[in-house]
Design brief:
With 210 residues, the chain is of the alpha/beta class. The protein has ten helices and five strands. Strands 2-1-3-4-5 form a five-stranded parallel sheet, with helices on both faces.
Length: 210
C-alpha cells in the first residue's frame, strides 16, 4: 500500500485529490497538510512513500519545503503539484530534488500513474519537461537570463510581473520589505534589466506567467 501525504492549502483541492487516490486498491492517504510547517510536522511523526506537494502554499513555498524535505526525509518521493505550466517551475523543482512535476490541470489523467512511478523510486517527467531539462543542463551560462536567478528571486520576479508591489510580496512571503527590495535589485542586476516594466515584458515574452 502506497502511503501518501497530500499537502495543499485549499481544502477542496485536497478533497478532490483524496477522492482520486482513495478510489484505488494500492493507495492510502495517510495525512493532510495545509502549510509547509504542517508538512514537516507530519513527516517527523510518520513515514510516507509519496508526498503530493503544492508549489504555491502561503508562507514557505513548495520549493523551500521541498529542499527541507530532501534533508529531513531523503527517502520519500515528492511529487510537485502546480497550477503553473511546466515552463515556469518544472526544471527548477527537479533540480531541487523533486521526483516529478504535475500540473493540476493534468492531474485527473496522470495522477495515479505519477504516484505509482514516484513510489517505485522513479522520476515522473513528461516528454516536454524532459526536453526542457536536457536543454537547461546543456545551456549552462548561455541559457536564458532567468535561469541565473535563485528560486526565491525567480518567485519574486513572477510576483512583480503579475502586478504585486514590494509590500504585497513581503506580506505574502512573510519577508521584510527590505529583503524583497534586495531580491528585486538582484533580479535587475542578474538579468541586466532596469525596472519593473522590463521585468514584466521579459516574463510575458518568455511565457513564464500563467
Amino acid at each position: 500500500m502506497i502511503k501518501i501525504l497530500v499537502a495543499d492549502d485549499h481544502p477542496i483541492v485536497r478533497a478532490g485529490l483524496k477522492q482520486m487516490l482513495m478510489d484505488t486498491d494500492d493507495m492510502a492517504v495517510s495525512g493532510e497538510a495545509a502549510t509547509g510547517q504542517e508538512v514537516m510536522e507530519k513527516v517527523s511523526k510518520e513515514d510516507y512513500d509519496v508526498i503530493l506537494l503544492d508549489i504555491s502554499m502561503p508562507g514557505r513555498g513548495g520549493i523551500d519545503v521541498l529542499k527541507e524535505l530532501k534533508t529531513a526525509a531523503p527517502g520519500v518521493g515528492v511529487l510537485i503539484l502546480s497550477t503553473h505550466p511546466e515552463e515556469q517551475y518544472g526544471v527548477r523543482v527537479l533540480k531541487a530534488g523533486a521526483s516529478g512535476y504535475l500540473t493540476k490541470e493534468s492531474a485527473s489523467e496522470s495522477l495515479l500513474d505519477a504516484v505509482r512511478k514516484v513510489a517505485r523510486g522513479e522520476k515522473y517527467i513528461t516528454p516536454t519537461l524532459a526536453e526542457k531539462l536536457a536543454v537547461a543542463v546543456g545551456a549552462g551560462k548561455d541559457g536564458p537570463s532567468h535561469e541565473r536567478l535563485s528560486d526565491r528571486e525567480f518567485q519574486v520576479l513572477g510576483m512583480i510581473a503579475s502586478g504585486k508591489t514590494v509590500k504585497d510580496i513581503s506580506e505574502e512571503l512573510l519577508l521584510s520589505v527590505k529583503t524583497v527590495s534586495t531580491f528585486r535589485s538582484r533580479i535587475l542586476e542578474k538579468m541586466d534589466l532596469n525596472n519593473n516594466a522590463e521585468m514584466t515584458h521579459y516574463v510575458l515574452s518568455n511565457g513564464l506567467l500563467d
